[in-house]
TrEMBL record:
It comes from the Eukaryota. This is 60S ribosomal protein L34. Keywords: Ribonucleoprotein, Ribosomal protein. Belongs to the eukaryotic ribosomal protein eL34 family. One of its GO terms (biological process) is translation. GO terms for cellular component: ribonucleoprotein complex; ribosome. Pfam families: Ribosomal_L34e (PF01199). InterPro entries: Ribosomal_eL34, Ribosomal_eL34_C_sf. One of its GO terms (molecular function) is structural constituent of ribosome. Signal peptide: none annotated. The lineage of its organism: Eukaryota, Rhodophyta, Stylonematophyceae, Stylonematales, Stylonemataceae.
């Protein structure tokens, strides 16, 4: 994990993902360890699994500190679903509504005869 010249600052000594280090030389000439933070993943659409544009890729703790515009986009289901998924939902709802109207019209025509 580490170099024999540096002293680790945390208790965990195993070479895990959360224990990644970077060796840095200070202005005083001392070699110290800096821990590298884990990178966040870009959120994905719940329906299609596509990456969501306009949403910051940060760790959950940092996500709570971010401002609202960085966490979502100004659209219905913005920050949760992709634009394509929202579009298909709207079209599906519209077609279901149309189908019901046609069904009702056919029923009234049949009843009138």
């Amino acid at each position: 994990m580490g170099d024999s010249r540096v002293v680790l600052r945390r208790r965990g000594t195993y070479r895990t993902r959360c224990n990644r280090i970077r060796k840095v030389k200070t202005p005083g000439g001392k070699l110290v360890v800096q821990y590298i933070k884990k990178t966040g993943k870009i959120p994905r659409c719940g329906d299609t699994g596509h990456l969501l544009n306009g949403v910051a890729a940060v760790r959950p703790k940092e996500l709570a500190k971010l401002s609202k515009p960085k966490k979502s986009v100004t659209r219905i289901y913005g920050g949760c679903l992709s634009a394509g998924a929202v579009r298909s939902r709207i079209i599906r709802a519209f077609l279901i509504e149309e189908k019901q109207i046609v069904k009702k019209a056919l029923k009234s025509q049949k009843g009138g005869k």
